[in-house]
Amino acid sequence: MMAKVGRFIADEMLIRLARWLRMAGQDVSRPPEGAGDSDLIEVALKEERILLTRDRVLAQRCEKAGAGCLLIMSSDLDGQLSEFSAAGFSLEPHPERCTLCNGPLEEAVGPEKADDAAGSEEGSIHWRCQRCGKIYWQGSHWRGIRERLEGKGD
């Protein structure tokens, strides 16, 4: 079975998980400011996203409304990543989304990559978020990211 990439919305309890999933190329939006449970379900239905939550009642309401939902039971990140992978979704490191705003990344070239990437390795690939402008690169930290994600995808 091939691991899937999907469109998700994370509730407030899973914002840290959302950031890690974005490093695996998953499209994970944040809840709207001040959103309640009904708002999350509405966004999931309207945008055809799967709601990621640790709230059992919200998961039941989501299912009754006909929206996709993935109930995450673990309270720690490694357990959450393992549950996500066990549900058939990809955790292969694939930087396509900004970890902060979920905007799409594009390869950054020339002087635009140098401003925010002090300490990046010479010759490394750089990406810039098309929405917020944050610069990313595969520095020495990338090995730890890759190990954590790939270790949960087994």
In terms of topology, how is this protein built?
Elements (H helix, E strand, L loop, with lengths): L6 E4 L4 H9 L3 E3 L7 H10 L3 E4 L2 H10 L3 E3 L5 H10 L18 E4 L2 H4 L11 E4 L5 E3 L3 H12 L2
Parallel strand pairs: 1-2, 1-3, 3-4
Antiparallel strand pairs: 5-6, 6-7
Keywords:
154 residues; alpha/beta; four-stranded parallel sheet; 36% helix; globular
User: Which structural class best describes the helix and strand composition?
Assistant: alpha/beta
Q: Overall 3D geometry?
A: globular
Q: What average pLDDT do the residues reach?
A: 88
Q: Classify the helix fraction into a percent range.
A: 25-40%
How are the strands of the largest sheet arranged?
Answer: 2-1-3-4
Largest beta-sheet characterization: 4 strands, parallel
Which sequence of SSEs, written as H and E, runs from N to C?
EHEHEHEHEHEEH
Unreliable stretches: none
> How far apart, in Å, are the first and last alpha carbons?
13 Å
How many discrete domains?
2
Number of helices: 6
User: Cα-atom Rg, whole angstroms?
Assistant: 16 Å
- Number of strand segments: 7
Strand content: 15-25%
Explain what this protein looks like in three dimensions:
This protein is α/β, with parallel strands linked by helices and 154 residues long. The chain folds into 2 domains: 7-86; 105-152, no CATH class. Helices cover 36% and strands 16% of the residues. The chain is built from 6 helices and 7 strands; from the N terminus they run βαβαβαβαβαββα. The chain has a 4-stranded parallel sheet, sandwiched between helices. The protein has a 3-stranded antiparallel sheet with strand order 5-6-7, with no helix packed on it. The longest helix has 12 residues, at 141-152. It starts with 6 loop residues before the first strand and ends with a helix. The mean pLDDT is 88.
